[in-house]
Amino acid sequence: MTRHLPILIVVLPLCGALLVPVTGLVAPRLARLIALLTLLLAHLCALGALQVALTRGPWRYALGGWEAPWGIEYVVDALSGAVAVLVSFVALTTAVYAGPHLAGRSRLGVASHQALHLLLTAGLLGIVVTGDVFNLYVFLEIAALSGYALLAGESGRGAVAAFRYLLVGTVAASLYLLGIGYLYALTGTLNMADLAARLALLPDSTAAALALALIVVGLAIKTALFPLHGWLPDAYAEAPAAAVAFVSSVASKVAAYVLIRFLFFVFDAGAAGRVLDLLGVAAAGAIVFGAVMALAQRDLRRMLAYSSVAHVGYVVLGLALGNAVALTGALLHAANHAVMKACLFMASGNLLRGAGPMPLTALAGLARRAPLTMAAFTVAALSMVGLPPFGGFFSKWYLVLGALEGGVPLAVAVIVGSSLLSAVYMFRIVESAYFREPATDTPVPVAGEGPTAALAPVLLMGAVVIGLGLFNQVLVEAVLAPAAESLVR
Amino acid sequence: MSHADYALSILLLAVGLHGMLVQRHLVRKLLAMGVLQVAVITFFVALAAKSDAGPPLAPASGQAPVARQHANPLPHALMLTAIVVGVSTYGVGLALLIRVHRRYGTLDEAELLERMRS
């Protein structure tokens, strides 16, 4: 079995996605068990594969025994292994959380949600472990299609937002596929490692430059990098709580991971460097714009969505700076933000029920009704701002150090300025939850801590936020530094 | 070799993008998205074409095939997958539109925005 860990990471949730809709109609409890079990096993497989990759170097797995570059290969190295562990962990935690939040739905509704959750997980994990650019396109679309359906939920507004996301996302995927077409015409291969070797022989090719431009624009839309983030706020704000925590936490990170693969592994440093300079400017814009827009929102989920726009900017800024410290910061921040955002969205789903608007005023005095949830929310919020000893402080610290090392003081100003803005918008929520009197006429149903299955994942994520802060040194030395080293050239 | 096939794919790309931006009816937007996907498929199929070559069938006599005499089958295989993806995208898109129409009674973008506000 252990010989096949890289493929099991993808196949397990895929099998789960096929089993759950059938069993869900007859035995809903069994279906939930299958869903959680396959996600847990996928997480363990990812951990095992990462362990092997860290001790023995990158693990190349030839699908069906067809050797690369003719066959499709899966590659687990420090980077893809770490992302796979992160994605499968968030998938498992949010699947536990989703259970109570689906209570009002029909059996078919619950089963289809669980199947889509598993399918999205399989798609995202496939994107992460594959070493083949067309196979990546297929997984990109599997993840995207299940993501649209998950975010649509059961509301009319959700369907409108998801339909817009579908149009934009399909344009993004088509641009990516067109870029792959150029690369295939140029090199005759679809394998990433083989592409890298062949593209290195064509340093000044216009076709390669066009392919790079098409792929980067496509992926920037999927990453929701400013100014291509337009689909994100509506899609997240109108989505059901059970879906948005998972999607918001990892979907854009996985797209950013694909950007890393193309910019640091497939294309040569010259062409990728020029693109990275441009992306750096966009990222700085994202950080400022996202923070300002988040400050202007009156709706909790919309505010969190705009803060995602800003935080994707931090990750891409780290990539653009390009030195080992900044890259470590980018990877650490991607992990931190995935955990923090999952915690914040899950907590907000427990505090305010329903898929409708979540006015910030409704949060007043909620700390008394839901002390544990609010504590986890506060921990994640402080980490978002970047206060020690929480995870967010350390990733921003690495990014600032990287910016100083790279001689880009403007990047430091952008990071610090945006953090101050995020302090304003996060503190006003925490302040109103702890020190204001509860609003008497809230327009949305206010819940308490919620059932254990909905509360425990929030607390776990809050604990992980603290853990990522306290033990960031261990994580950086064991996993992220080797991954960042492999990116530097 | 003429480049009419590539020109066609660029034309389809432009038509698709234009339709997605300009059309006000959501079903028309979805159809324009389909045209955009077909543009990419056309591009790949054009890549596989060769002059003076036949379809990629192995010679009956058991001899090893000569690559120059056959169209490249790989882009065709890739595009079969892309067509399946395209059909699935249509399916999800139409399912969402059915939900939207049931809830708001219209698929015209301007009317829809108005009804969502009230």
Report what the structure shows.
The complex is a heterodimer of chains A (489) and B (118). Chain A is mainly alpha-helical. A two-stranded antiparallel ribbon of chain A has the order 1-2. In chain A, helix 8 packs antiparallel against helix 10 and helix 11 packs parallel to helix 17. The two termini of chain A are 36 Å apart. With 118 residues, chain B is mostly helical. Chain B is elongated and about 70 Å long. The N and C termini of chain B lie far apart (58 Å). At the A-B interface, helix 5 and helix 6 of A face helix 1, helix 2 and helix 3 of B.
List the helices and strands and how they pair.
The complex is a heterodimer of chains A (489) and B (118).
Chain A: H1 5-26, H2 28-56, E1 59-62, E2 73-76, H3 78-101, H4 107-129, H5 133-152, H6 156-187, H7 192-199, H8 206-223, H9 232-237, H10 241-266, H11 269-296, H12 300-321, H13 324-351, H14 366-369, H15 371-385, H16 391-405, H17 409-435, H18 452-470, H19 472-487
Antiparallel strand pairs in A: 1-2
Chain B: H1 4-22, H2 26-48, H3 73-104, H4 109-117
Helix pairs in contact in B: 1-2, 2-3
Please summarize what this structure is.
By secondary structure, chain A is mainly α.
Mean pLDDT score of chain A, rounded? 90
Largest sheet: number of strands, sense, barrel closure of chain A: 2 strands, antiparallel
Shape category of chain B: elongated
Percent in strands of chain B: under 5%
Low-confidence stretches of chain B: none
Give the tally of β-strands of chain A: 2
Number of strands of chain B: 0
Rounded average pLDDT of chain B? 89
- Largest sheet report of chain B: none
- Give me the strand/helix succession of chain A: HHEEHHHHHHHHHHHHHHHHH
Fraction of residues of chain B in helices? over 70%
Strand order of the largest sheet of chain A: 1-2
Give the largest chain-chain interface (CB within 8 Å): A-B, 25 and 33 residues
Low-confidence stretches of chain A: none
Beginning-to-end CA distance, first to last residue of chain B: 58 Å
Portion in strands of chain A: under 5%
Query: What oligomeric arrangement do these chains adopt?
Result: heterodimer
* Tally of DSSP helical segments of chain B: 4
- Ends distance of chain A: 36 Å
